[in-house]
Each structure stands twice: as structure tokens, then as C-alpha cells.
Amino acid sequence: MELGRLIFGGLLLLWLVSGIARCAELKECVFPAIYNFGDSNSDTGGISAAFEPIRAPYGDGFFHKPAGRDSDGRLIIDFIAEKLKLPYLSAYLNSLGTEYRHGANFATGGSTIRRQNETIYEYGISPFALDMQIVQFNQFKARTNELYRQAKTPSERSKLPVPEEFAKALYTFDIGQNDLSVGFRKMNFDQLRAAMPDIVNQLASAVQNIYQQGGRAFWIHNTGPIGCLPVNLFYKHNLPVGYLDPYGCVNDQNEMAKEFNRQLKDRVIKLKTELPQAAITYVDVYSAKYGLISNAKKEGFDDGLKICCGYHVNDTHIWCGNKANVDGKEVYGGSCENLSKAISWDGVHYAEAANQWVANRILNGSLSDPTIPITQACYRH
Ligand SMILES: *[C@@H]1O[C@H](CO)[C@@H](O)[C@H](O)[C@H]1NC(C)=O
Ligand SMILES: *[C@@H]1O[C@H](CO)[C@@H](O)[C@H](O)[C@H]1NC(C)=O
Ligand SMILES: *[C@@H]1O[C@H](CO)[C@@H](O)[C@H](O)[C@H]1NC(C)=O
Ligand SMILES: *[C@@H]1O[C@H](CO)[C@@H](O)[C@H](O)[C@H]1NC(C)=O
Predict the structure, then answer these.
(1) pLDDT at 1
(2) Mean pLDDT across 272-285
(3) Would you say the CB of residue 366 lies under 6 angstroms from ligand 4?
């Protein structure tokens, strides 16, 4: 008995020590570049360049000018770039002042995974669905490779991605939220649930496409608690009991986001067997965002349903940066006093402080599968 316990204890110790040694062996990955695909949660200037510029006070809090981002400052993708000691990503669609040596950003505000048959002028859905972002990446890779080979001087080359580095880059995805919002608009919950496998499969196809071209490290965000976006409560009155959770989030919408996330996680597990050399990390952004909203006060933030920028009183909604007439007076949808306490920036998008809080939770791996920090996301588990 005693001997058994001793042996068991010894084995346990050995296992612990070897575990620690295994972890210590994992050096930090050297990611020379980031290629990102997504929607407004990670757009660093794409839709703003392709259509109308995003106006002040967007960007005021950090960049001190509009910076093509739907926030007062940095997005999670910017904190990822900082963590990996890389420059902020330029949008592929931006034709001025760009820098692609260390990656490019194909995300655009309003993007969906699946193609939508409506224009951006109707409900703000981007024409650059995920399949088109992948086509743009393919073109970017082919053209920069060609330009790199043709470059005559090191200084010409230094502005371009190094062709070999596409295989060592980190490929990040944050998309799906708008497939849900289109779904809420056009389908009932059963129809949307039935569409979910196709939506998730198309995201998986994008990953497969990049893998076939040599990409190996993938960092895939799940979708956030869409039912907690304050916009979902506009013009809603006399809600039935149980429509909202204790934090004011729409229960059914969050359930749908969780269903998307369950299926995405399963699909990612399957992808790992389909792509034998891929290191794929599934990142539970939902839990991070919901964790912030459900603990807002304790974490030093304003209520998650409070909108920092814009004028939203009763049923009058003036979006962030817009002006309108209210009872004969011109009202400007300006920003709140203390940006560092804001969770929702404009009713749809998160404020920088919230993005930073979420980034701090997800980048160390505590909400990932496998549970490895982003700095080790090049290792297959
Ligand atoms: C767009 O798609 C919806 C269903 O997703 C369909 O009902 C509608 O007819 C389509 N419209 C056009 C113009 O194709
Ligand atoms: C908003 O609605 C509340 C309750 O109906 C009312 O008391 C308040 O005056 C309204 N505020 C404005 C600015 O209209
Ligand atoms: C803004 O909020 C932060 C976090 O609660 C606080 O530390 C800071 O003092 C506040 N700033 C102002 C000007 O109130
Ligand atoms: C990751 O960071 C969060 C927030 O700072 C912390 O609560 C958590 O314990 C950290 N987890 C790990 C594995 O380091």
C-alpha cells in the first residue's frame, strides 16, 4: 500500500517535471508576418479605404485621428501585432501609405463567411465575403512573390513580404458575427441553425485553402456574444420575461452564437486531422467578452449596454460621429467622458479598453484549445 503510494507519487512527480521540461522546451515562435481575415472586429482600414472613410471621433482615443477602425483605438488584431512585436497590419484594400513586409489584413467591416446577395448600401454587408478575402490573399501572395523576384535593390525588396515567410506566418480569423446578424434578419432560428454547418464549413474551406498554399499556423477566434451588442435593443419595448439575461443580453441570439461556436470548435478539431501539419488554435473570444460584460463593474468598466459614442435616448438614435436634429436642436453623437471605462464604443463595436482587456485574456492561451499562448501557436498539439 505504502509502496504503491510512493511509486504513484514518484510517477506523478516525474510526469510533472517532464511536463514542465516539455513546456520550457517550447521556444517562442518566430512569426515574421500575420495575415488576417475577418469583419469589422479586425478591419484595420479595408472598408474605410474601399468605400467611405470612417470619421472622427473614431480613432480619437489612440491614433488621435480616424484610423480605418471601428473603435476609438486599437482592435484585438492590433494587440496581437504588438504581442508578436510586429507592426500594425495594413489593409490590403488600402492603396496609400501601406506596409506589407510583415503581413496584410484582408478583413473588412461587414464581411460574412458566406456570400450575401445584397449590397453594402442596404445593410452594410461587405462585398468581400471570406471566399473573396482568400482570393485577394492568393493574388497578394502571387503578385508580391513576383515583385520580390523582380526587385533590383535590397531596399525595393525590403518593402515586400519575403516569399519563404508565407509558410511561417500566423493566419488569423475572426469572422461569423455578420452571418448571424444576416441570419437574424432574414431567417428564423431553425433556418439559421440548419445553415450553420455550411457556414462553418466555408470557414474551414478558407483554412484548407491557405494550408494548401503552405500556411501552417492558424489562430481562429470564435464569435462573441452578439446578443450583448446594445444595438440589438434599439426600438425594443415590452420584452417578454426571459428575453434578456441578467446582463441585458438577448438570450436567443447568444444561444445562436454558442451554437456557431460549438460547431466551429468541432470543425476545427476535424480540420486538425485533415491537415496533418497544421497548428490550429481555437480561441474562445466569446467567454472573454461575456466575462467582461458580466463583470463590468468589478473590472472597472461601465455597463456593457452603455454606448460610449453616439446619442441614444429613448428611440432617438444618432450614430457615433453623426449629427441630427432633435426637437429643433442640432445634436452631435460624440463620445463619452472616460474612454478607458467603455465596453461598447458605438453600440456595435467594442471600445479599445475592452479590446485590450479581451486581448489580455486570450493571448496567454487560457481560453484557447489547445491552451497555448499565441507566442507558441506555431506548434502542433
Ligand atoms: C437573396 O437570398 C434570399 C435567401 O437567402 C432569397 O430569398 C432572395 O430571393 C435572394 N435574392 C436575390 C436577388 O437573389
Ligand atoms: C425618455 O423616456 C422617458 C420615459 O418615457 C422620459 O421620462 C424622458 O423624458 C425621455 N427622454 C427624452 C430626452 O425624451
Ligand atoms: C477613467 O477611468 C479609469 C478607470 O476606472 C480611471 O482610472 C481614471 O481615473 C478615469 N479618468 C478620469 C479622467 O476620470
Ligand atoms: C491569462 O491572463 C489572465 C488575465 O490577466 C489571467 O487571469 C490568467 O490567469 C492568465 N492565464 C495564464 C494561463 O497565464
Answers:
(1) 46
(2) 98
(3) yes
Hey, which bits of the chain come out as E strands?
Answer: 34-38, 103-105, 170-174, 217-221, 279-283, 310-313, 316-319, 323-326, 329-332, 368-369
359 CA to middle of ligand 3, Å? 20
**205 Cβ inside 6 Å of ligand 3:** no
Task: Compute the average pLDDT of residues 107-135.
Answer: 97
Q: Cα separation of 49 and 93, whole Å?
A: 6
Distance CA 308, CA 306 (A): 6
* Ligand 3 pocket mutation pick from 337, 340, 343 by most atoms within 8 angstroms of CB: 340
CA of 171 to the centre of ligand 2 (A): 48
Q: Answer whether 0.85 is exceeded by the pTM.
A: yes
Task: Report whether pLDDT(2) > 90.
Answer: no
Residue 381: what pLDDT? 85
CB within 8 Å of 341: residues ≥ 6 apart: 300, 301, 302, 353
pLDDT, tens digit (0-9, with 9 covering 90-100), for 168-203:
999 999 999 999 999 999 999 999 999 999 999 999
The listed CATH number (1.10.10, 1.10.8, 3.90.930, 3.40.50) that belongs to domain 29-298+352-376: 3.40.50
Mean pLDDT of 315-328: 97
Spatial CA neighbour of 163 closest among 185, 193, 143, 179: 143
Question: What are the pLDDT digits (tens) for 131-177?
Answer: 999 999 999 999 999 999 999 999 999 999 999 999 999 999 999 99
Question: Which secondary-structure segment (H or E) carries 179?
Answer: helix 177-186
Distance of CA 111 to the CA centre of its chain: 12
Distance 110 CA to ligand 1 centre (A): 18
Give the SS3 label for residue 351.
coil
All 3 cell numbers of residue 271? 480540420
Is 346 among the residues known to form the active site?
Answer: yes
Active-site residue (options: 39, 40, 48, 111): 40
Q: Using alpha carbons only, what angle is made at residue 338 by residues 332 and 339, rounded to the nearest 5 degrees?
A: 80
